[in-house]
Write a structure and sequence with these properties.
elongated; 2 helices; 3 strands; three-stranded antiparallel β-sheet
Length: 102
């Protein structure tokens, strides 16, 4: 099973329209669970946030998008955590320090 979690840190701001008007800014973080990270569309996400907040999409700024991929494997009891970590890292072409065993 592969689950891709998308975390988007979003800043939503309403702009001041008259001199001296206070600028209202709302910052929040959100996590989405996607079956396919390629299906994530930043523009659609920004439009949905804007609609939910009652502001124009041009007033929404996504400041960071990061992806975390989680994959589940099952091994025979004879396989140690170090062996599993090494094997997974080799198959994925990443450093062993990037593989976490839970």
């Amino acid at each position: 099973t592969t689950t891709a979690a998308t975390t988007a840190t979003t800043t939503t701001a309403t702009t001041a329209t008259t001199p001296g008007e206070v600028l209202e800014v709302t910052n929040f973080e959100t996590a989405l669970v996607l079956g396919d990270v390629g299906a994530f569309e930043k523009t659609s996400y920004m439009e949905a946030v804007a609609a939910a907040m009652g502001v124009n999409a041009s007033q929404v700024e996504v400041t960071e998008i990061s992806f975390e991929v989680r994959v589940g494997y099952s091994f025979d009891k004879a396989v140690t955590e170090d062996q599993a970590r090494s094997a997974v890292a080799a198959v994925l072409g990443v450093a062993e320090s990037q593989v976490f065993i839970a």
